Amino acid sequence: MNETTTSEVKQFDPLDMRNYRIEKLPKRQKSNIEKWLATAGIPLSILAFIIVGFFIHLPFLDGILYDDLVSESARKAFTKIGNDAFARSNHLMLAIFLAGIILWITEAIPNYLTSLILIISLVLTGVLSEKEAYAQLGHPVMWLNIMSFVLASMLVTTGVAKRFALWFILRFGKNAGSIFISFIVINTILSAFISATTAKAAILLPIFMVIAAIYGARGSEGKNNFGRSIVLQNLLNINLGAGAFVTGSGANLLAAALIGGAIGQTIFFADWMAAMFPIMVGLMFIGYILAMKVYFPLSKEERMPQIEGGMERLQMEYKKLGKLSFQEIKSVVIFVLILGFWATDKLHGISATAVAFVGAIVALLPRIGVVKWNDVDIPWHLMLFSAGAYTLGSGFAVTDLPSISVNAFFDHLGIKDETPFWLIYVLLTGVMTFSALLFQSKTMRTMIFVPIAIGVAGRFGYEIVSLALPVAFMIEHVYVLPFNSKPAALLYETDQYSYSDAFKYGITMMIISWFLIILAGQTWFKFLGITPLGVF
Asked: What is the pLDDT of residue 221?
């Protein structure tokens, strides 16, 4: 038994990126609090569903009028089924949403199973038709993620990713600080081209996991501050980098399309980048300082490579790779072409999903391609998790529950049409920012809160861009809890950090980000003409 264990340990090569395939990530041990939440999650979710769905009748949901509705889907449903049935659908939608939130937060059952339960619940309660509910698995962003995972697997299988990681650590790994700053640069560059944060996470995960192993981070009982910092900073930077560009994620593109449609103008790449690039890069460096100086300071030992043989071993491993193979060259060419087509979509009009489709097909072609299907590393549990989130978004669109709730909230507080712009600005950006703690999909949050911002701007007589665009700028702050986004769920499985590590670091960055967007609204956004002069 001991001999077998020793042999298995010896066979583990921290420089072999195949050890960091998604399905090989270690199973995390839950803390006592997490175990308690998991035990309570199922009964609490059932109780919430029954009480809200069948015993509580909220007045603002019972008295819905056609003119109160914003969503066209909701207006069609209202006309088709009538006031009473529409109110019943809203109560059931709210009940399903609350039950799902409880299951996702407590992790009483796997997230993908919660998503499957949500989908069938929306069907059985009649909130959504089967066609609408099941169709979300075919959402274009879902296919973009799947094809991007094929491309990421291509880089790992051919050895390009390992070659880059070794070159990277030899070039920039003279000290720990330079490694973290280099990842800021890499994340920013990739974000301009890759419209899928999950794909970026899949591409970068093997690289920073190898580097973490080199610096002594082993996960589970072998956690150290280097491992915590490199994974959590990359999670932060993957999302902040996406927020710097309108092409950074599908949710950004959706937000720009919604706002552009409302104002009759296009939200251009340059407009978004001018507003958010300096803010997001600044936040990345703030995150670096907080991690290195406050939350995860490195000991003297953690600042130097701890792998046997040190940098000499890495140099030897790099030399073993020899010259670039033909397969590696092909994978680099395919990947660069994909990035090029993604970056020039305005010129050719081909969607990012279609481009990824073609790239993945070429990569998988027999004799021509560079990767086999069995070598492709696709986290299907995350895909199902996403399908549930998108289905919830469809449910919200059909019931118009978010805008109905917001209008009721404003009316309850007695907020009048002459309310100062700054108060509405602070409220809407804050709701968008902190909604990431509860919602599991950026696309869903975009479909809910950007139309709300557009509607609120119209209600109070302000320019749509002045409220809707700053709200859209807060889409990518989804790094606090593991269920807040697919990259967060993926990187949590590395077992390099705890729930509390992610929360204390992430919530601090989220609060700082909100205050920074408020400050920008009074300064930088005024200069760019986004927010009106003389309002604050």
From this structure: 63
Q: What angle separates helix 83-106 from helix 401-413, to the nearest 10 degrees?
A: 90
∠ CA 352-387-443, nearest 5°, is: 55
What CA–CA distance (Å, rounded) separates 512 from 514?
A: 5
Task: Give me the residue label for tokens 């920008």.
Answer: 520
d(CA 461, CA 418): 9
Residues 445-470: pLDDT tens digits?
A: 887 788 788 778 877 778 888 998 99
Residue among 149, 134, 47 at smallest CA distance from 99? 47
Residue showing tokens 């007045």? 59
SS3 letters across 426-441: HHHHHHHHHHHHCCCC
Contact 142, 387 (CB under 8 A): yes
| Beta-carbon contacts of residue 125 (< 8 Å; ≥ 6 apart) | 53, 89, 92, 96
Residues 245/191, Cβ–Cβ less than 8 Å: yes
Q: Give the global pTM.
A: 0.67
The pLDDT of residue 416 is above 70: no
Are 302 and 216 in contact by the 8 Å Cβ rule? The answer is yes
Question: By the 8 A CB rule, do 275 and 269 touch?
Answer: no
| Backbone phi, psi, residue 219, to 5° | 75, 175
Residue 21 clears pLDDT 90, i.e. is over it: no
Cα–Cα dist 294/296, whole Å: 6
Q: What is the DSSP string of 252-299?
A: HHHHHHHHHHHHTS---HHHHHHHHHHHHHHHHHHHHHIIIIIISPPP
Show the 3-state SS of 400-414: CHHHHHHHHHHHHHC
Domain spans of the chain? 140-375
Show contacts of 433-437: CB within 8 Å, 24+ apart.
Answer: 433/474, 433/477, 433/510, 433/513, 433/514, 433/517, 434/510, 434/514, 436/477, 436/478, 436/480, 436/484, 436/485, 436/510, 437/480, 437/481, 437/484
Contact predicate 57/91, CB 8 Å: yes
Helices (H) and strands (E) in the chain, counts: 26, 0
Which residues, including other chains, have CB under 8 Å from residue 114's CB and lie 6 or more apart? Answer: 100, 103, 104, 385, 388
Cross-strand bridge partners of residue 222: 219
pLDDT digits (tens, 9 = 90+) for 203-246: 778 777 777 877 777 666 667 888 889 999 999 999 999 999 88
Q: How far is CA 397 from the centre of its chain?
A: 21
